[in-house]
Structure formats: structure tokens, C-alpha cells
Amino acid sequence: MWTRAELKQQAKAGLKQYYWYGVLATLIYLGISMGISFLVNLLPLVNLILSPLVSILVMNVMAAGLKRFFTISTLSAQSAGVGEVFGSFKNGRYGNTVKVMFLRGLFQTLWTLLLVVPGIIKHYEYYMVPYLVAEYPEKDSKEIFRLSREMMNGNKFKTFVLELSFIGWTILAIICCGIGLLFLNPYVEATIAELYLRLKEEKLNIPRGQAQGMDGMTMNSGVSYSAIADEGQTRQLGMSGVVKNGFVVGIQGAFSGANVPVVPGDVLVIGSDSRQCNLVIQGPEVSPVHIKISFNGVNFQVTDCSGAGTFDMQRGRLPKGSPVTLNSGAYLQVGTGGDIFSLEVR
């Protein structure tokens, strides 16, 4: 069971590595929000129509992206890249994100109009919806809400108390002309991201970076397999019981939750051509052969073969055609889309 002190301690430890990126991500979100509000208010006759549309189509989606930024950054103890704030616009599931976030707001509003207390309860019941839809954008709304309810079962009041524990810092930030909120927000967001990751472990049995997928299929971390993913679905094609300690772990996208062993001497190929690749990802920016990954027992050799690029989320874009040595803990993004993998040695 989690405690407030433990979550905050872990959040602060990881936040040291990416705090100013967290401030920047917050500034981008708030800046765009205030800028759009200012522009909309210049048109009072259409304000009643534009404001809800902007909230539904833009700000809700960015809010999910901001949650994802802090989740990945917390998970890796390094910045996920502030572009992740816009990740939900370009993961190929924008419409589903809009729908899920709209329904969340609608349900909360309707419950609050009915009675205040049920509205508060529903607020915490749907608390993890933005995190879930950002990480698993292929999941439909029913599944997202079900998972959030499951995660928050028995944790609603504890989460309320966790939020309440920031009230002193919040008052101090407001006293500082409100600008302090910009610098406080990364701490709050990192703590809630820790809560999300912890509840995934406790309620959904999905350890950090390990093998249980969201469909309830547990993938054995001691086997190698070939898989194909299309439209967010993962399908196993073959398995061999060879235990190794190099893994490519799906963090976001079609293979989110997958745990793929990389056998020394073999090459894991990721791309859109099922004839040439072990992991097949369909997307406009995914090349037939996009990335080649090998493992020598100590570290990984990664070769970008794509047109859209492969990005080390700490170093930036990898050089095309030249093998790059990466250590355990590195995060790779396929193009600028929503597929992200981590490299792990166990």
C-alpha cells in the first residue's frame, strides 16, 4: 500500500533530473490555455460556442499529454521531451482521446449537478482517466473508465488527502502573485504520476516496465517472441523458451506493456513490413524497416534505418545508418508518433 510520504519522496528524487523541463511543459500548457482564452474573449458573440469547443478539442487533449509527459519522465527519471504535451494529437487516436476526455467532464458535471457529494466521488473515480487514455489511446471509453474505477477503488479518500497535503505550498505559491504555481506544479504532477504508476502495480498487476499487458495477457519476461501490432492490438506469433536479460519494453503505443527479450547475437527489427520485422507497427511515419536493435550482454546497439527518424528521448535524433550504443534505461521514440520503447537489462 502506498503512502503520501513515499510518493512524494520518490517524486522529488526523480524530479531532480527533469525539474526545469517540467516547468517548461507546464508553462507551455498554461501559456497556450491563457492565449487561447484571450483570443476567444476578443470575440464575445461567439465566445459561448468557441470556449467549449476549444476546451474539448484542444485543452483536454493537451491535459492528457501533460499527464503523459510527467508519467514518462517520472518512470525514466529524465525528461520525456516537452513535445510529449502534444503527444495525444499525433498518436493516431486523437478522436478517441477527445471522446474519452469529453465524457469524463460530462459525467463529472452531471453527477455534480445531481448532488455535490456524488460529483466529488465521481471526480476521484475518474481520476486516472487522463493518464490511461494518454498511455493507452487505443482503448475505448468503457475500458478506460473501468480501469480508472478499478485503480481508484479504495483510494479515493487517500488521493483527496494527498491533494490536500499540497495546500500549504499552494497558498504560498498564490501569495507569490500566482507565479509560484508554475514552479509548484511539476512537484504535484510528479507525485500524482507516481500514484498512477503505483496503482497500476497494486490494482492492475502491471509492474513498472514489466510484462502484463492491459488486455490481461501476461507475457513471460523469460521468453522471446515475434509479434505484430496493428490498430493498437498485440498478437503473439511465436515463442521459444530462452532466458535472456536484454529487453525492449513497450512504454506507449501499440506495444504498450509488451516485454520483448533481445537475445545476444540476434537483431530485433521494428518497422511496418511484416516480412522483415519482428515487431510490426503501422503508422504514417513508420518505415518498412525503422529500427534495428541488438544486445551484447552489457548494452544495446541501435541503428536507425528510417526516414522520419528514431529519437533517444535524452540525446535527440539518432544518426541514420550508424549504430549507436545505448545503455539500460534509454527511451526510444519511433518517429514523432506515439510509440515509445525503453531498453532494459535485467
Q: How many strands? A: 13
Q: What portion of residues is helical?
A: 40-55%
Taken as a percent bin, the fraction of beta residues is: 15-25%
How many structural domains?
2
Describe it for me?
Helices cover 46% and strands 17% of the residues. It has 346 residues and is α+β, with helices and mostly antiparallel strands. It folds into 2 domains: 4-204, no CATH class; 224-345, Tumour Suppressor Smad4 (Sandwich). A 7-stranded mixed sheet has the order 2-1-6-5-7-8-11, with no helix packed on it. The chain has a 6-stranded antiparallel sheet with strand order 4-3-13-12-9-10, with no helix packed on it. Helix 2 packs antiparallel against helix 3 and helix 9 packs antiparallel against helix 10 (180-204).
Helix and strand topology:
Layout: H1 4-15, H2 19-41, H3 47-76, H4 94-114, H5 116-125, H6 129-135, H7 141-152, H8 156-164, H9 167-175, H10 180-204, E1 224-230, E2 233-240, E3 246-252, E4 259-261, E5 267-271, E6 279-280, E7 291-295, E8 300-304, E9 310-312, E10 316-317, E11 324-326, E12 331-334, E13 340-345
Parallel strand pairs: 1-6, 5-6
Antiparallel strand pairs: 1-2, 3-4, 3-13, 5-7, 7-8, 8-11, 9-10, 9-12, 12-13
